[in-house]
Amino acid sequence: MTKLKCPHCGMIDIIDLLPLSTDLLWETLSEDDLKHRYYCGSCDKYFGATAYTEDGRQVIPYITGLCFYTGDYYKGFAQIGFRRHYPNCCTYKITMCRDDNHEEVLGRRACGDLSRLIDSLYYDLFLDDWQRTYDAEESPNGTYWKLIIFIEDEEKREYSGTQEHPVYWDELLALFQPYFDLTNRSMLYSDNNQIKV
Ligand SMILES: [Zn+2]
Predict the structure, then answer these.
(1) CA distance 181 to 190
(2) Which domains can be identified in the chain, with CATH numbers?
């Protein structure tokens, strides 16, 4: 279970509005008035609203894939991409590049995990409340990351950063780490990370 914290500031002084609002909702308010689930007392912001597309559809049922990569401009990157084929079936593959040596380390595999990953991203990690960019300035040490959400009939949504990370960064990495574990390689580049051949 992911620990609840504010996706804006990372603090845990959070009020769950749903139990509080239910009586009000019943009497006077429309669901639209209470679209945010949580309120953060530390930064005075709301979060946890349902994600919608530009044309008013709920985002989650229309997600067709996602891609995450993290790397270093000078040393290489690791990437994992999921693509939905049927409602309950997706495929994924892992690609890595180390010192200009580009290779697909885990060929395309089938799994039923995409829905679970999407639910985690939106309901546990509050992806819809993230900034689109974290520290867009040039990164002195060259590290960068990007998460791309592909949505049917809408432009893909990109979340990225250089040195800065979102509040739920560790949880984001934890979502993808089990797949990288299958490759016996680390998702994050480090100098003392010996690549097994
Ligand atoms: Zn906050």
Answers:
(1) 16
(2) 1-49 (no CATH), 60-181 (3.30.1560)
